[in-house]
Amino acid sequence: MAIFVVNRTLPGITPDALVSAGVRAKTCCAEMTQEGESVRWIRSFFMPETSQTHCYFEGVSKDAVEEANTRARIPFTDIAEVVEMTPEAV
């Protein structure tokens, strides 16, 4: 499966709202996987200074990742496939 980054700008979001969004993302991914369209939320990074969030998902397609975020009612600006690089891999 491919890995995708979901970029968001969430001005004014509270810590509780971030946790709630994470719960919704996790739940929607699990539901979609049970329905046969595999998608998994890996992790997110929130930058309070800019109100931006980068969320990483593993999925069968960009469309599946978009569907999971739409179902979770979490706004996003764009979704792009990424290539993962780690210190151990280079």
Structure notes:
This protein is α+β, with helices and mostly antiparallel strands. The chain has a single domain (2-89), classed as ORF SCO4226, nickel-binding ferredoxin-like monomer (Alpha-Beta Plaits), CATH 3.30.70. The protein has helices at residues 15-34, 62-71; strands at 2-9, 39-47, 52-59, 78-82. Strand 2 and strand 3 form a beta hairpin. The chain is globular and about 35 Å long.
- Rg calc: 13 Å
Structural category is alpha+beta
Number of strands: 4
Give the helix level as a range of percent: 25-40%
Order of helices and strands: EHEEHE
* Average pLDDT score: 96
Head-to-tail CA distance between termini: 21 Å
Q: What is the CATH class name?
A: Alpha Beta
Low-confidence stretches: none
CATH superfamily: ORF SCO4226, nickel-binding ferredoxin-like monomer
CATH architecture: 2-Layer Sandwich
Task: Offer a few descriptive terms.
Alpha-Beta Plaits; four-stranded antiparallel β-sheet; single chain; about 35% helix; 4 strands; alpha+beta; about 90 residues; globular
